[in-house]
Amino acid sequence: MEPLSSEENCPSTHSSQSDSQYGSPPRGWSEELDEHGHTLYVSEYTNEKWIKHVDEQGRPYYYSADGSRSEWELPKYNLSPPISGEAPKSHSLERKQQEPIVLTKWRHSTYVLDISDKPSEKCGVLNVTKITEHGKKVRKNWASTWTVLQGSSLLFAKGQGSGTSWFGGNQSKPEFTVDLRGGSVEWASKEKSSKKHVIELKTRVGTELLIQSEIDSVINDWFRALSETINTHAWESDEAIEEDMPESPGSEKHDKEKDPRDSKKNRVVKNSSMESSEQKKTRVKLKKFLTRRPTLQAVRDKGYIKDQVFGCSLTALCQREGTSVPNFVKMCIEHVENTGLNVDGLYRVSGNLAVIQKLRFAVNHDEKVNLDDSKWEDIHVTTGALKMLFRELPEPLFTYASFNDFVEAIKNSDYKQRVQSIKDLIKQLPKPNQETMKVLFKHLKRVIDHGEVNRMTTQSVAIVFGPTLLRPEIETGNMAVHMVYQNQIVELILLEYENIFGR
Q: Which of 54, 95, 197, 357 is the most buried (most CB within 10 A)?
């Protein structure tokens, strides 16, 4: 791309006047080379630095080291002090009559920048590379690039030969351009680049670029300018996403009738960014949906969803059912006592997990469950489902807050004090926990009473139910020790049931 010329500031008029073509620095300037091999001019009066480049037609031009200005000539300073408020004379590359810049022969389209509406906010030479294009990683290839920030667009022109072709000729042709709407900018991590002062720029269509400058102040200015631009145009992001989306089938059919070849070209370009645009549009719609969605309670009140039994807190379940003991617990206990007290290994033997899950599903979905049905005929399915209900409680029957107190109580060497401490702690539990515990342990006592047939002793029942009914909120390395205490607590309650709960 080349600098814009006008009748007043045309290359033929000023290139002959430039002192830099005479082989020595102009008066008031010293000449040196920067780290990239570019000619660098330093003002002896203001110490400002300008870099020299040459366009495709061999014409020299200059831009300030901070990228804020570009000129045909170096600024001229009088030997005498300048009059206050008088700026150094120079020939700017900008037009006096603001006319649109037409960028053509790029991606099969014409891009118009109206200078009168969108003047260049910033321009300068930066090191740029793409690392991702439309969501796909590409090979990193750093290049010194003339960069222009204009409106919500960032335009790049690669250097050619000894300089960058930003002007000259009839048209300006960017190598590529980036739409900043919906994008993001941040400082790149060392994983992205080992260079210093690197900006990572991400666009809404899945393109990621790294932008770098060796001059700390320059890259900081660019970071600030890009951030402000992205924030300024943030409200346009949704509109930009809509623009990226492919047209409706009807309009596409109309385009085919007009020119099938153009339609094919456009379809290839659209398809390349369709996937990332679809993802972005989906995220935006999902975000809007989530901010407008009704609360869980509102959905419950309308009857769209029902609370489940498994995984529900004991207090909430009893409150919902209007009971002090969950209905499913009473159902299982009644079924076991009617049909399974004499079954060998009751509660110790595992049931078929697939059938247990089917029963769990039926209970959770408020289906009418009859445990006498032939599909639930295995008593170990019923006992397995009951143990699963207690295991899946968000907070166990012996609450998390009381776990350590129960452990300390069982450690008491005095048996009577031990029983009294356990009794007192149970009375401190929530009412549904107390009532459910009373019903469950009464049932387990009956199971133990049939121990000669089912071979379930107090100790074996305690081993089965200890970890199910008691557990710490945060597991530690003392799991084996905790398990011993858990079993002892259940065993003590079974042995002292009448003393703790009464008859």
A: 197
Residues in the chain: 503
Give yes or no for residue 73 having a pLDDT over 80.
Answer: no
**Calpha distance 153→140 (Å, rounded):** 22
- Is the whole model's pTM more than 0.70, yes or no? no
Q: What is the mean pLDDT of residues 475-503?
A: 84
d(CA 432, CA 427): 11
Q: What confidence score (pLDDT) does residue 12 get?
A: 36
pLDDT at 89: 44
What are the start-end ranges of the H helices in 293-326?
296-301, 314-321
Sign of CA dihedral 4, 8, 9, 13: positive
Q: What is the mean pLDDT of residues 487-503?
A: 90
Q: Among residues 476, 281, 314, which one has the least CA distance to residue 392?
A: 314
Q: How many helices (H) and strands (E) does the chain have?
A: 17, 16
State the average pLDDT over residues 326-353: 94
**pLDDT of 272 above 90:** no
Strands 29-33 and 163-164: unpaired
Do residues 128 and 145 touch, judged by C-beta distance below 8 A?
yes
The pLDDT confidence band at residue 262, using thresholds 50, 70 and 90, is low
Rg over alpha carbons for the chain, rounded to the nearest Å, is 40
Q: Would you say the C-alpha torsion 394, 395, 400, 403 has a positive or negative sign?
A: negative
Rounded to whole angstroms, the Cα distance separating 277 from 134 reads: 9
Residues 210, 188 contacting (CB under 8 angstroms):
yes
Can you tell me which residue has the tokens 């037009």?
95
Cβ neighbours of 87 (radius 10 Å): 7
In angstroms, the Cα distances linking 400 to 175, 299, 394 are 65, 30, 10
Q: Which long-range contacts (CB under 8 A, 24 or more apart) does 119-123 make?
A: 119/150, 120/148, 120/149, 120/150, 121/149, 121/150, 121/151, 121/225, 121/229, 122/67, 122/68, 122/148, 122/149, 122/221, 122/222, 122/225, 123/63, 123/67, 123/68, 123/70, 123/147, 123/148, 123/149
pLDDT, mean of residues 223-228: 88
Q: Contact, 2 vs 166, CB < 8 A? A: yes
Q: Which of 40-49, 312-321, 482-491 has the lowest mean pLDDT?
A: 40-49
